Amino acid sequence: MNVLETKQLTRRFGDLVAVDSISIQVQAGQMFGLLGSNGAGKTTAVKMLTTLLPPTSGTATVAGFDIGREAPKVRRSIGYVPQMISADGNLTGYENLLIFAKLYDIPRREREGRIRDSLALMDLQEAGGRMVHDYSGGMIRRLEIAQSMLHRPRVLFLDEPTIGLDPIARNAVWDRLRQLRDEFGTTIFLTTHAMEEADALCDVLAILHRGAVVIVGSPRELKAGLGMENATLDDVFVRYAGTALESGGSYRDVSRTRRTARRVG
Amino acid sequence: MSHAPAEPLDAWADAGVGRWLWAFVYKTYVVAEFEVRKLRHDPTELITRAVQPALWLLIFGEVFTRVRAIPTGGIPYLDFMAPGILAQSVLFVAIFSGIALIWERDLGIVHKLFVSPTPRAALVIGKALSAGVRSFSQVVIVYTLAVLLGVHMNWSPVALGGVIAAVIIGAACFATLSLIIASLVRTRERFMGIGQLLTMPLFFASNAIYPLAIMPPWLHAVARVNPLSYEVDALRALMIPAGQSAFGIGMDFLLLLVSTVVLVTIAARVYPRVVT
User: Fold this and answer.
1) Which residues, 6+ apart, have CB-to-CB distance to B106 below 8 Å?
2) A156 with A188: CB under 8 angstroms?
3) Do the strands A2-13 and A16-22 form a parallel or antiparallel pair, or are they unpaired?
4) A181 touches chain B (CB under 8 A)
5) Partner residue facing B117 (CB), from A81, A99, A104
6) CB B30 to CB A103 under 8 A?
7) Can you tell me the distance from the alpha carbon of B35 to that of B48, in angstroms, rounded to the nearest whole number?
8) C-alpha angle B33-B37-B41 in degrees, rounded to nearest 5
9) Does the structure show a pLDDT above 60 at B12?
10) Are B109 and A88 within 8 A, CB to CB?
11) Number of helical (H) and strand (E) elements in chain B, helices listed first
12) Inside any domain, residue A9
């Protein structure tokens, strides 16, 4: 069953075609990775799927609801972890969870239990009462995932979930994501430009180049398709998305990515 | 754990008006609640905000009360001015409150709120009301200073309630204006520029420190469309026993509320653009 489907989804900003007619399907329970260099259109695609940005043309359904006409229902069915820090540093970890428990109408009697479970699942029990501005980058990411999972969404969107994390923190995030999929059957839609991450986590990958999907397949299929011995995803990426030198994103993308990396790291 | 499909609780867009309204009020409260929690964690802002009204009352007020150049309708100038300074300090708190939105946008905090099933207008009003709560401290500060300077205050509970209401609505009004500006300009530098550009005209083209009667006609016309004039007018009638309202307190509140509703409507439309 497809839990997410796009048809010729397109977004322009003036003359720039940020997302160019993408048509993809994601099955329930899959970990789907949207791969691309900075500025390839990953974040724009996620913003459309999470109802933050209306498409210029084309359609998409998430959890069976149209992202335009049925945006409120889409919002109830999804969780979203933006690329930039989205936990509030001026609140405690517990309060960060409490606000979303309330905004998502989790019944009062279930709230405390859900929050406790989420903190435990993300290994943050001890830190719940501390201010988030004292958290490490890995803890912030895990808290953000906990926030976005409180209402048990069917689809969880993560934009560059491990950007700026050291390998230990990154592995912890990967383990938690696998656990969410296994325990709750959550479909996970993530964007990344880290091939290692795509290889380790994703069942299916779509490579985005200048806004268009250039190939879709499992990591194994993509590597086998090159017809090289010991091909890696890096080879796949270079084949389909060209060398990284010609892309690299705008000044704003780069400054934002670096800032995020600095804050998280 | 299973995934319940959209159950009745979810579909409040489809639910009755009463239920929708309740959800709206509740979400507004939640947004404001967490702004207040942030303030509780770090209240330094409230203390630094005390400096400006103190300077106005102690220096400007003390000097002009000796000049006796401004017709105040027979009340001491400090008494006349104290409500104006309260309105001014509330204006300053509110008009710069939108900068927090730009911080939250540069992070991803606003994005996540917009993806949650929270009505846009509830996000706007919740933020605006939190500026009202911040302004409470200004009430305490201005009242304290005014008493120390010998201003006669009206301590009736009804009057005090009216002052608090006027402060909250006034703060919400200008905080919403601030949110609109922040949503449109998107950078701190431009926001600060426009904020500076607005505060002085809003303050001087009002009845905060002199009556409208002494203004040239063009300035008088500007002051009459400035919501701050109505906030000051209500505060002047409520805060000091000798104070009189020029427009009628009911009219003051009505116009403040109408301005706020218009601004909230605009803000709910432009606010989501901040994340695109």
Assistant:
1) A84, A259
2) yes
3) antiparallel
4) no
5) A104
6) yes
7) 18
8) 170
9) no
10) yes
11) 13, 0
12) yes
- Whose tokens are 């985005």? That residue is A208
Q: For chain A, what is the domain count?
A: 1
| Three-state DSSP string of B21-35 | HHHHHHHHHHHHHHH
Instruction: Give the number of C-alpha atoms closer than 13 A to the C-alpha of residue A213, restricted to the C-beta side.
Output: 20
Of B37, B112, B113, the CB nearest to A91: B37
What tens digit of pLDDT does each residue of A152-208 get?
999 999 999 998 889 999 999 999 999 999 999 999 999 998 899 999 999 999 999
**What is the DSSP secondary-structure string of B32-99?**
HHHHHHHHHH-THHHHHTTHHHHHIIIIIIHHHHHH--S--SSS-HHHHHHHHHHHHHHHHHHHTTTH
Residue A154 phi/psi, 5-degree rounding, is: -80, -35
Residue A171 burial by CB count (10 A; 0-12/13-18/19+): exposed, middle or buried? middle
Quick one: closest CA in A to B118, which residue? Answer: A103
Q: Is residue A26 part of a domain?
A: no
CB-CB neighbors (< 8 A) of B41 in chain A? 90-92, 131
Q: Which of B9, B13, B272 sits opposite A72 (nearest CB)?
A: B13
Rg (CA), chain A: 18
Residue A91 to residue B118, Cβ atoms within 8 A: no
Question: Looking at this protein, which amino acid is placed at residue A121?
Answer: L
B207 has pLDDT over 60: yes
Q: What is the CATH number of the domain that holds A254?
A: 3.40.50.300
Under 8 Å between Cβ of B109 and B123: no
Put simply, the answer to whether A80 touches B11 (Cβ < 8 Å) is: no
| Nearest residue of chain B to residue A83 (CA atoms) | B108
Beta bridge partners of A5: A25, A61
In chain B, the residue whose alpha carbon lies closest to the alpha carbon of A29 is: B3
Q: Chain B partners of A104 at a C-beta cutoff of 8 Å?
A: 116-117
Does B45 score more than 70 pLDDT?
yes
Determine which of A47, A74, A77, A84 to mutate to test the interface with B (most B C-beta atoms within 10 Å).
A84
Confidence of residue B10 (pLDDT cuts 50, 70, 90): very low
pLDDT tens track for A42-72: 999 999 999 999 999 999 999 999 999 999 9
Integer angstrom CA distances of residue A242 from A30, A208, A210, A245, B248: 27, 11, 10, 8, 71
Q: Is position A204 within any domain? A: yes
Is residue A30 in some structural domain?
Answer: no
Percent of chain B clearing pLDDT 90 (strictly above): 72
Instruction: Find the domain containing A80 and state its range.
Output: 2-17+39-264
**How far from chain centre, in Å, is Cα B99?**
14
